[in-house]
Amino acid sequence: MPFDDVIASEDALYEVYEQPGDGVRAKSVATFDEHCRAFIGLSPFVLVATADADGRCDVSPRGGAPGFAAILDDTRLVIADASGNNRLDTLRNIVQTGRAGLLFLIPGLAETLRVNGRASISRDPQLLARHDAGGKPAKAVIGLDLEEAFLHCAKAFMRSSLWQPETWPDRAGLARPAQIWKDHIGMPDPIDEVEAWLAEDYANNL
């Protein structure tokens, strides 16, 4: 283990933390009720958490106009897979394990909606026709069959002041994103050319 004094069992966890209260245990729902539907319908951004067959984890952001994640019925939702860099981390993980966890955000709202369930990658022609990826045809959709959904409390957003611009950190010490990519990839191109390439890609490949 890379760390010392590690908690290695669930029993050991609850020697440090209290057991959750009855309300916390009962708050998850197994169908998309009117509250879940309204929340997801207003959300332009979701984080998709997956893991591969070896347990390596990944979290990928997905975004679009509110409603880009579409609820089909009481337990199913789909997210059209938009164009990306073709690493396909999320899709490969879903193919391997058939699981995903989603965290939906609404700008300015400190509560989030957590959605967990069985996941798959579908090429169903009807779904592809109904759910495009930001105005472009999708090659596939991520489908999730709900096991549980619940509202997550606001404490993390309150502690981080995420939606309060006056508290946002000064980014003066942060390299430009193009510089980070240039260094991580080992690109020989001048930084101005990397930024121009990024601008062109963002403009034409969304």
Summarize the structure.
A hairpin with a 5-residue loop joins strand 1 (45-51) and strand 2. The protein is an alpha+beta fold and 206 residues long.
N-to-C span: 41 Å
Gyration radius over CA? 20 Å
Mean pLDDT reading: 94
Q: Give the neighbour order of strands across the main sheet.
A: 2-1-5-6-7-4-3
Report the sheet with the most strands, covering strand number, pairing sense and barrel closure. Answer: 7 strands, antiparallel
Percentage of helical residues? 25-40%
Helix and strand string, N-terminal first?
HHHEEEEHEEHEHHH
Strand content: 25-35%
Uncertain regions spanning at least 5 consecutive residues? none
Number of strand segments: 7
Structural class by secondary-structure content: alpha+beta
Shape: globular
Q: What is the count of DSSP helices, taking H or I runs of 4+ residues?
A: 8
Ordered list of secondary-structure elements with their pairings:
Elements: H1 10-16, H2 22-26, H3 34-42, E1 45-51, E2 57-63, E3 69-71, E4 76-80, H4 89-97, E5 99-105, E6 112-122, H5 125-130, E7 141-152, H6 155-160, H7 177-185, H8 191-204
Helix pairs in contact: 7-8
Task: Tell me what the structure shows.
By secondary structure, this protein is of the alpha+beta class. Helices cover 32% and strands 25% of the residues. It has a seven-stranded antiparallel sheet with strand order 2-1-5-6-7-4-3, with helices on one face. The longest helix is centred in the last third of the chain and has 14 residues, at 191-204. The chain is globular, with a radius of gyration of 20 Å. The N and C termini lie far apart (41 Å). The mean pLDDT is 94.
